[in-house]
Design the sequence.
């Protein structure tokens, strides 16, 4: 009997010791990986922080960074460095756990800031964007590969500079450092359950978007320059898909960004509107615009109606962005937004969380 119980006990003890030893080894190797991760940034960006503390346990390797600053300085075609783009975060948690051994979990706590330099009328300045709200959860692969993806999510986020608020954000970033001219070096896709934009009378729902930057990878390292001013300009960005529901309308946008400085982009887009007839019939431009502009707006609406009918109930409009300003045809969008604000929200029931 003693031998009968002794052998299973020894076997169980061996299994426990093996598991504990594996957990300790995994934690040690993962902690070393996190140390190398923050100590050896990429050649494009440099990271600094006020303090670094281990925060793991037997089953997880973790590290907390306080006062994080990431500075990225791409080069220009003439060899001079461009202005530095800076990202800041109050608190970042990094961790690796054995039940997901091939990915790193990063939690961004507290407000985050992004500072973008730009020039206006010959004077240099900086634009500050601050993201606040719930912590942002990010997951990316442990292995450093030329191509990969990282997923992110946040229950709520608010962009302080623009007043944009987003509820239930989910998305992913893709990269390919070996991309050529026929492939994308960067990709971003995300979905938002509900988005509030101050300049729009009602919020957007079911927002989905996908963007990409054509290769090669050198576009990230070396920025294009404007010939006259020598200032850095935006690389080409493709809007593969952007859609949302707004006031009973189903909106879709495709197009591309093709230049512009920092916060003053330039691009051309197509806006597709479905289920638009009831909305257009409620527009009353004479209540907002001067008589001549109201008449011109009505003529434009009639043309939109006829073109929409020929398109099988789908309305397609051209949008252009010049130096950061959006135009519908030749009319600045900000001038006709008050007309749209007169339309009452479509009848629907919202579930408040």
Sequence:
């Amino acid at each position: 009997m003693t031998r009968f119980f002794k052998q299973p006990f020894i076997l169980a003890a061996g299994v426990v010791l093996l598991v504990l030893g594996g957990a300790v080894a995994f934690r040690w190797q993962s902690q070393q990986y996190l140390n190398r991760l923050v100590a050896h940034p990429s050649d494009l960006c440099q990271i600094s922080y006020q303090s670094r503390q281990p925060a793991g346990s037997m089953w997880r390797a973790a590290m907390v960074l306080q006062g994080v600053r990431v500075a990225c300085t791409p080069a220009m075609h003439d060899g001079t460095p461009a202005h530095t783009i800076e990202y800041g975060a109050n608190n970042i948690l990094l961790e690796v756990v054995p039940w997901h051994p091939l990915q790193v979990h990063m939690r961004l706590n507290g407000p985050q800031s992004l500072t973008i330099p730009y020039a206006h009328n010959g004077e240099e300045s900086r634009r500050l964007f601050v993201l606040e709200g719930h912590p942002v959860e990010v997951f990316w692969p442990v292995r450093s590969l030329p191509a990969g993806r990282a997923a992110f999510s946040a229950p709520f986020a608010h962009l302080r500079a623009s007043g944009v608020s987003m509820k239930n954000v989910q998305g992913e970033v893709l990269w390919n450092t070996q991309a050529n001219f026929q492939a994308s070096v960067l990709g971003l896709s995300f979905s938002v359950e509900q988005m509030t934009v101050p300049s729009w009378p009602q919020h957007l729902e079911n927002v989905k978007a996908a963007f990409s930057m054509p290769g090669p990878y050198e576009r990230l390292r070396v920025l294009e320059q404007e010939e006259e001013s020598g200032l850095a300009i935006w690389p080409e960005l493709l809007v593969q898909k952007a859609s949302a529901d707004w006031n009973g309308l189903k909106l879709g946008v495709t197009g591309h960004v093709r230049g512009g400085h920092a916060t003053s982009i330039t691009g051309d887009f197509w806006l597709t509107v479905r289920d638009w007839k009831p909305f257009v019939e409620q527009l009353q431009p004479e209540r907002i615009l001067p008589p001549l502009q109201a008449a011109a707006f009505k003529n434009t609406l009639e043309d939109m109606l006829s073109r929409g009918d020929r398109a099988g109930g789908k309305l397609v409009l051209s949008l252009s962005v010049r130096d950061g300003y959006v135009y519908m045809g030749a009319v600045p969008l900000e001038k006709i937004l008050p007309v749209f604000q007169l339309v009452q929200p479509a009848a629907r029931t919202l579930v408040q969380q």
